[in-house]
Amino acid sequence: MNELRRDPITGRWNIVVLDKIADLSDFKSEPHPKDPQGCRFCYGNENDMPEIIAHRKYGPPNSPGWTVRVLPNKYPALRIEGELIKEGLGVFDMMTGVGAHEVIIDTPDHFRDMADLSYAEMEEVVWAYLARSIDLRRDKRFKYILIFKNYGESAGASLEHPHSQLIALPIVPKIVQEEIDGASKYFDYKERCVFCDMLRQEQMEKERIIYDGRYFTAFCPYVSRFSYEIWILPKKHQSDFALLQRDCVSCLAKALRDCLARMKGLLGDPSYNFIIHSSPINGHDREDYHWHIEIMPKLTKIAGFEWGSGFYINPVPPEIAAKNLLSVKLVEK
After folding, report:
1. Are 273 and 151 in contact (CB under 8 A)?
2. Domain containing 166: what range?
3. Catalytic residue among 161, 163, 277, 292, which?
4. Could you give the C-alpha distances from 153 to 30, 149, 160, 271, in angstroms and in order?
5. Spatial distance between the Cα atoms of 276 and 166, rounded to a whole number of angstroms
6. Staple 239 to which of 72, 94, 128, 286, CB 3.0 to 4.6 Å?
7. Residue 333 located in a structural domain
8. Average pLDDT score over residue span 316-330
9. Count helices and strands in the chain by DSSP H and E runs
10. Strand 163-169 to 100-105 pairing
């Protein structure tokens, strides 16, 4: 019989399929064409978009020789220029579209995604995430910084070249606020972080863990919304990604790269999204919230039941997903 499982953070219920578990052959990966012709993120096109920061092996700014490069988005959802003005329009609220929208080019190699990077290359990407997160929080207009990656057309990627994005917002996103509110209620009742409790239970049961390093653990969460969904959590309680310590960066890079490589090796290079959920800017190191990364492969479609109910139907129990992911042999890089 199928099971309903309740998320202890948000209270959301999901359906985990046990009657007819999806096989790997039930998932079809979309093609990921790789044509560097005209790509403005490849070497030689640096003057097209001046960089905000870059990690370089050689060369002056806005020239080849970089390994990771951060640019302003050419078509930003929000713009950094202007005054943040808030207004009420009857029952509605409005504010000017002030924020920041940046692109992190993960690698100069058009043909390699994150799953193909070496640990050292992935570490440079994480350093770029951290540097931009720290810098943008100095702007008092911003309340939240969201770092995310869209890979593949069905995941929302409009460009082939491997890249991530960052958007600084003047408000805290509703999904994040729901997590914070749920974690706060749990803490008020039990005087413990719900994420820390989840992590302790995963480490005790062990059947859903796919990476267990010195500073980070990755697992397929018990209440997975999507098949082969993966979460990465720091072992030591910490609410703000920007507080990540220097000696933890390489471990996070290894955890993220290994999780993506396992997904690619098992599922045939699926489209996916990942997001970093952190506490709001100037939230300090909250006792009740725990920053984390959520990785969500695009293997099934969201349909009427999901949109109408808020439930998700997951055709692969996370226990089986973790077992299958662990069967992938990784190449150490």
Report:
1. yes
2. 3-326
3. 163
4. 8, 12, 9, 7
5. 10
6. 286
7. no
8. 95
9. 6, 15
10. antiparallel
Which token pair is 317? 């129990």
- The single residue listed with the structure tokens 């207009």 is 141
Amino acid, res. 155: A
Q: What is the pLDDT of residue 35?
A: 84
Is there a contact between 158 and 77 (Cβ–Cβ < 8 Å)?
A: no
Which is nearest to 276 in space by CA: 252, 297, 298, 299? 252
Q: Each residue of 275-304: pLDDT tens digit? A: 999 999 976 678 999 999 999 999 988 889
CATH assignment of the domain containing 69: 3.30.428.10
CA 89/CA 182 separation, integer angstroms: 30
Q: How far apart, in whole angstroms, are the C-alpha atoms of residue 16 and residue 226? A: 9
Asked whether residue 42 is domain-assigned, the answer is yes
- Catalytic status, residue 163: yes
Cα atoms in the Cβ-side hemisphere of radius 13 Å centred on 99:
21
Which tokens in the block code for residue 21?
């578990």
Within 13 Å, how many C-alpha atoms sit on residue 316's CB side?
25
Number of domains in the chain: 1
Q: Is 317 helix (H, G, I), strand (E, B) or coil?
A: coil
246 contact partners, CB below 8 Å, separation of at least 6: none
HSE of 33, CA atoms in CB hemisphere, 13 A: 7
Is the entire prediction scored with pTM above 0.85? yes
Residue partners of 245: CB distance under 8 A and separation at least 6 = none
The alpha helices in the chain, defined as continuous H runs, are 119-136, 174-190, 194-205, 249-267, 304-309, 318-326
Using CA atoms, how far apart are residues 169 and 150, in angstroms rounded to an integer? 18
> Is 211 part of any domain?
yes
Q: Position 169: which residue type?
A: L
Give the list of residues 6+ apart from residue 12 with CB closer than 8 angstroms, or none.
Answer: 6, 223, 310, 311
Name the residue among 101, 105, 100 with its Cα closest to residue 160. 105
Distance separating alpha carbons of residues 201 and 206, to the nearest angstrom: 8
- Residue-averaged pLDDT of the chain: 93
Q: Is residue 45 situated within a structural domain?
A: yes
